[in-house]
Amino acid sequence: MSDVILSVRGLGKSYGGRRGLLGGSMPVKRAAEDVSFELHRGESLGIVGESGSGKSTVARLITRLVEPTAGSVTLAGRDFLAMRDEELRSYRQRIQMVFQDPYSSLNPRKTIAESIRGPLLERRERLSQQDMRERVQRHLRDVGLNPPERYTERFPKDLSGGQRQRVGIARAIAAEPDIIVADEPVSALDVSVRAQVLNLFNDLRARKGLSYVFISHDLDVIRSVCDRVAVMQAGLVVEIGQVRQILDQPSHPYTRQLIASSLRPDPSLYRDRPMERAGAQPAR
What we know:
This protein has nine helices and ten strands. It is of the alpha/beta class. The protein has two domains: 1-14 and 29-94 and 178-262, P-loop containing nucleotide triphosphate hydrolases (Rossmann fold), CATH 3.40.50; 109-176, no CATH class. Strand 9 and strand 10 form a beta hairpin. The longest helix is centred in the C-terminal third of the chain and has 18 residues, at 191-208.
């Protein structure tokens, strides 16, 4: 039995090409073109690239938040793009998304408990009020929001950015998915809480056997949570392979440019250099 949980072949999305109001045709813009990859059970695949490279478009295409114009997506052996109505509702539970901005992805008028109850209700399980309450609290504990009773009746505005993102993750795992697609999930967070949320992703993957498609422009994030990485440029996957192989020995010029642009200066170069007072002129 194959351990491939998600197979993407020739996926593409283009805009334009229709006739405009004045009769001329609109230029075609290809947001993604001929994107192909496989995701194995329990694996974390990173997709990295600069802004506008198409990585977030791919995230929305494989979750069917946006419908592709070309290609195929096979989820757990079934043609995901051909599904409709009840079958689509059922399979959509198996691939959930965590968004970049935790505040805008939560309904500000719903309590935290109501937000997490949504996926549980979609599963159409017959749960008593007590069972529902316990399930919500369990998912809050899973993401480190303890004690859960402190958070259930709060609203998103009452939480910090890191806490809101944990709620977004709790909402995603409440659907008991096979795959989580995380689109820049830590880029909107303070530096001090990014490591905590990334550790949470690693912990949930280990405990629940989740597979990830992890979108990021930050190579340090990709190194910390991903097994393999696909590098995107202008809607195309230009390189794919093991994280260490791609980031330590890149073969594509674009990948080398990405790595060079993220390099940090070596602090040791400045360790023995004396501090100068603000406004003082250096000795000549």
